[in-house]
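Deliverable D2.4 — example input (structure tokens):
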């Protein structure tokens, strides 16, 4: 199966940039922030989510799997909108199986307390990530694990230590994430292939192409 994976589009996802594949994987921060003068920021993003849903429904992939990110506040304020998507399967700390392949998606990030989906590293994050089962084919999170493609401004790392501990224990075949724009890329470690698929660079320009992952 061929996956096409991207994240951190911030309202700039364009069908013409997406290569052929079987499944589309979106690892959060898909929506633009509401403008400062918006009287109803959640409602403004809800409209952008409807537009994204219509775009996704027209794509030729068999299925789109989607997790939220720290700029997708509408999905924390109104999670029912994620469940109602027609063009994607929204994963919020839950698994799904697609043609015999096991996926799991989670939206949290440990460093930005004033943003949606904030979960500081510690006991709550440990408990949350313990629900990630072993034997996954693909783990989809918004944040990177600590120490893997998670550097924004060297040497500062923005990944989650609790997530890294669970990845080491659960050993997914593939881990897809974004969040840390300047660390776009891929690597492999201890049997897991890691993919930071952030589309936007550190300046917010959508310069990084989606990554193709064959399973």
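Example output (designed residues):
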């Amino acid at each position: 199966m061929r996956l096409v994976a991207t994240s951190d589009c911030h309202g700039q996802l364009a069908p013409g940039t997406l290569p052929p594949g079987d499944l589309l994987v979106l690892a959060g921060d898909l929506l633009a922030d509401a403008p400062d003068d918006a009287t109803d920021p959640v409602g403004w993003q809800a409209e952008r989510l409807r537009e994204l849903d219509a775009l996704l429904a027209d794509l030729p992939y068999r299925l789109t799997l989607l997790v939220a990110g720290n700029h997708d506040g509408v999905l924390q304020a109104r999670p029912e909108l994620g469940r109602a998507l027609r063009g994607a399967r929204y994963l919020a700390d839950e698994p799904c199986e697609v043609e015999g392949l096991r996926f799991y998606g989670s939206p949290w990030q440990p460093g930005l307390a004033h943003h949606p989906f904030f979960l500081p590293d510690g006991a709550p994050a440990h408990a949350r990530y313990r629900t990630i089962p072993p034997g996954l084919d693909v783990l989809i999170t918004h944040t990177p694990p600590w120490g893997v493609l998670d550097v924004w401004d060297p040497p500062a790392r923005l990944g989650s230590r609790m997530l890294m501990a669970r990845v080491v224990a659960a050993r997914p075949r593939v881990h897809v994430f974004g969040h840390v724009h300047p660390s776009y890329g891929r690597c492999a470690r201890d049997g897991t292939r890691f993919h930071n698929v952030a589309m936007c660079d550190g300046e917010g320009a959508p310069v990084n192409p989606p990554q193709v992952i064959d399973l």
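The chain has a mean pLDDT of 96.
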